[in-house]
Give the backbone structure.
Amino acid sequence: MTTSSRSDRQSAKSIWNFGGLTFWELVQSVVLDAQKNELFERASGLAFDFLLALFPLFFILIAAFGLVASQHSLQLRISLLAYFADLLPALAFQLLNTTTGELAANASGEKLTIGIVVALWLVSGGVASIISSLNVAFGVRESRSWFKVRAIALVLTLVISILILSALGIVLVSGSFVDWLGQELRLASTMIVLSKALQWPTALLFVIFSYALIYTFGPNLPRIRWHWITPGSVFSAISWMVASAGFRIYLRFVNNYSVIFGSLGALVILMIWLYVTGLAFLIGGEINANIERASAENLDD
């Protein structure tokens, strides 16, 4: 067995042993580094970048729906929005739904090509901001050229867009299959409940895999080690979904935000949700970074 393969196996093993750290040592280290690296402030910047990237990403997906599945584009758009309907507060989802409808109306004709190019540029800019923040979390300096970083961000944007499109296609096909199977077995209501229950695990796996892609190929690490699932990606995905659900429940009972923000209430709520998204992502990166450093120190010893 080569030294490289032994190192990879040791890395895969140690990442779930927290690199030799105890659970509380890892927690303390992450909290200290989060303060040192100003993750809460960086999450605010990411929220703004995410806002600029969110609607262009929807434009790309809607355009892709029309290109690869024109007959089912509306169903795919409804499936995509269904996930956000469960995550976002009602007012923020209303804003997203309205804007998505407007984007769908413009995702055709001469505007399509220019729109896709601009959208890719804006979304990749959001991914580039994530890469910059992850470099801080992993304690590495950016030595790659601006063009290389932007190219990596663009590739990650395209891969994640393809993943979203594939996941929605699977949901659409499986939904049709579940409907047919329920009718044949005369268990329509049971099959609908089962299909709905499987949507969240599917979404969770997609989010974890997307996080793993960015955590692995985003920061300027001296050596890239691929892990399908990492403690950081699991923490980020689960905490993001729990925080989103909790935020939605909280706003259902405390709905006086429009008194403070007026007509901007929906936008402010969407920004807060994007802030939570960015913060969960950065903390996950900090978890992985601390485990990587601890693993390296143990290997040196």
Remarks:
- The longest helix spans residues 146-185.
- The mean pLDDT is 75.
- The chain has one domain: 7-300.
- The two ends are 21 Å apart (CA to CA).
